[in-house]
Protein: Electron transfer flavoprotein regulatory factor 1
Organism: Vanessa tameamea
Amino acid sequence: MSQPQRRAVLNLYKTLLFLGRDWPQGYELFRKRLHNVFLRNSEETDSNKIDMMLKHGQFVVKEIEALYKLKKYRAMKRRYYDDN
């Protein structure tokens, strides 16, 4: 793994850990699953496959952010708008 890829993987891991703080099932469960996924793929040396996994990781980051924004929107809607 090249140094820029290593830096990108660590940055992705840190970003996902940060996003996991608000995970509905709890931070510890999210952290354990994230650690297991990264540990399982830690022996990968193919540069193309690492790039594909990084792109998938960035997709997951965007999906988690969208999930949190939707959760926030629904809470605001419940708070300020009457259902009747």
User: Anything to note?
Assistant: The chain is about 75% helix and 0% strand.
